[in-house]
Amino acid sequence: MAELVASNLSVAAGGRTILAEASVTLRQGELVALLGPNGAGKTTLARAMLGVETQTGSSRLDGMAITSLSPIDRARMIAYLPQIRPLAWPATVRDVVALGRYAHGAAIGRLTGRDAEAVDGALSACDLQPLANRSTDTLSGGELARVHLARAFAAGTPLMIADEPVAALDPRHQFQTMSLLRRYVDDGSGALVILHDIALAARFADRLVWMKDGRILADGPVSETLTEARLEEVYGIHARIIESADGPAIIVRSPVAQDRP
Amino acid sequence: MTRWLLPSLLVASIAVLLAACFLGSTPMAVPRVLSALVGGGAAGDAIIVWQIRLPRALAAYVVGAALAISGAALQGLLRNPLAEPGVLGVTATASLGATFSLYYGLTALSVWVLPLSAIAGALAATAFIAMAAIRIRHMVTLILIGVGMASFAGALMSLLMNFAPNPFSLSDMINWMLGSVANRGLDDIALAAPFMIAGLALLFATKRGLSALTLGEEAAHGIGLDLRRQRLAVIAGTGLATGAAVAIAGGIGFIGIVAPHLVRPLTGHDPARSLLPSGLLGGVILVLADIAVRLLPTTSELKLGVVAALIGAPAFVWIAMRRRAHG
């Protein structure tokens, strides 16, 4: 079982602490949602766990310091989906998904055996087969998000870290993307997903990690950590949580009045 | 990749190299050239074909190929179709290096001084560009830095020309600045070849990383690319290849932008698969341009670099205008 254990990760930039002693674990079979307001340090935590950010503390993959692994070895264990940026070239959908096999030595355009299988599987899982030969600059935002997700799936890693994979997607595509991630986890992998939609996180995640000002304030199952008091503490909002058969709904009533010094 | 692309480029390469042997300022009938090519015919004919026309065509071909592959690799690394050794000031800095060693007579020390100083100039420029690339946010800024560097190298070159001790060294310098393959022999190519081969080998060895960079640096790192090594390889590779090309032909710009631009749509816009076809096409284009230079009935021969810029600079403007605003 692959396990990514971050302990006491801290990151400072420009004399400011942007991540303070964060400890969190990602295991296979778990979908963990990382929540928090803008600037809480979610992306920094994800990057520090991957060993990209200069940090103190440790992030260990199956007991090995993540920074001691080569990029290839790390990429074979953890897929990373950063916030989606435009592609440099209008490559085809299949070629972009094939890049997910980079760590396995695949050259795009010349896929063989297991690489071709993994790419085809990922394309099918994300309903992209009909678009496989389309150029990515002709896709809608929802389709492009699926392409990136398929690229991460194609890597066939036991773990994944995804940074706002549903940003800028409409509700239907948000739901679809989260369902794909849920299926990935139900098939035995583990995913850490940065989200802004609390209800979506509560609907799909096994565990919620709440961050504010570079610190992790709470980490636990949805039923234990999603409270109105927590929403006030983390996001500074008065909100009501309404339970329903399809997961909780969050209704924001007003922002908390800020104490001005 | 389109299946016919590489074979047809290979055929075109052989065709233009042969054509370059048949065409020239001295009219020679086809049978005379043919017999000279296979080792027969008059001694004068053999000299014209084997020591003047063919080496010159080969020089144009390898220079075009090296510049086009360097351009394709830089475009992959910097994720910008306008990145090219000429535009980024790499060729200008390399020719400055070459001119500098000529001006101070350093070339008398050893035959290796000229190629090495051109390569040193090219490496310095690519390293500077790559360092700037890490700091800046928009790749367009990088092009501007390159344009500034090209102007600076040009200014330093003009300074050297101002102080040129005699008309001969002045015309020598103009040759390096404008770029030409006139009177290049096989030994000029042989001298630059080790550096060119090393540079191109480095670029081909790391071409998969160029594909990975299509996703952007962060995601490329995520799928397992060692960014630092990739940058170093492309800097060293393009520096060596471009420097060697400049050591043969002086500063010739825009080949590195035109050839990859034409090839890219036929290779699925994949920087890795664009390298080889770009190189072949770059060679073909430069040999054709050189044939044009030789055939045009001008009183003094046009410089190859001038013709390349006359074709390439408008292409550069056209590509820049068609680009969408996300760079």
From TrEMBL, chain A:
Pfam families given in the database record: ABC_tran
Keyword Chloroplast annotated: no
UniProt keyword ATP-binding present: yes
Domain ABC transporter residue range list: 4-238
SUPFAM superfamilies reported for this sequence: P-loop containing nucleoside triphosphate hydrolases (SSF52540)
Record-annotated membrane-spanning stretches: none
Record key words, sorted: ATP-binding, Nucleotide-binding, Translocase, Transport
Gene Ontology MF, one: ATP binding
Function of the molecule: Part of the ABC transporter complex HmuTUV involved in hemin import. Responsible for energy coupling to the transport system.
PANTHER family from the UniProt entry: HEMIN IMPORT ATP-BINDING PROTEIN HMUV
Protein's name according to its UniProt entry: ABC transporter
Species annotation: Aquisalinus flavus
Source lineage: Bacteria, Pseudomonadati, Pseudomonadota, Alphaproteobacteria, Parvularculales
TrEMBL record, chain B:
Matching InterPro entries: ABC_BtuC-like, ABC_transptr_permease_BtuC
Keyword Heme appears in the UniProt entry: no
GO cellular component term of the entry, any: plasma membrane
Pfam assignment, any one: FecCD
Signal sequence residues: none
Database matches in SUPFAM superfamilies: ABC transporter involved in vitamin B12 uptake, BtuC
One GO MF term: transmembrane transporter activity
Transmembrane segments: 59-78, 85-106, 112-134, 141-165, 185-205, 232-259, 279-297, 304-321
Xref: PROSITE patterns: PROKAR_LIPOPROTEIN
Coiled-coil features, chain-numbered ranges: none
Membrane topology: Multi-pass membrane protein
GO biological process: siderophore-iron import into cell
PANTHER family registered for this protein in UniProt: ABC TRANSPORTER PERMEASE PROTEIN MJ0876-RELATED, FERRIC ENTEROBACTIN TRANSPORT SYSTEM PERMEASE PROTEIN
Family according to the record: Belongs to the binding-protein-dependent transport system permease family. FecCD subfamily.
Record's protein name: ABC transporter permease
Species in which this protein is naturally found: Aquisalinus flavus
Lineage: Bacteria, Pseudomonadati, Pseudomonadota, Alphaproteobacteria, Parvularculales
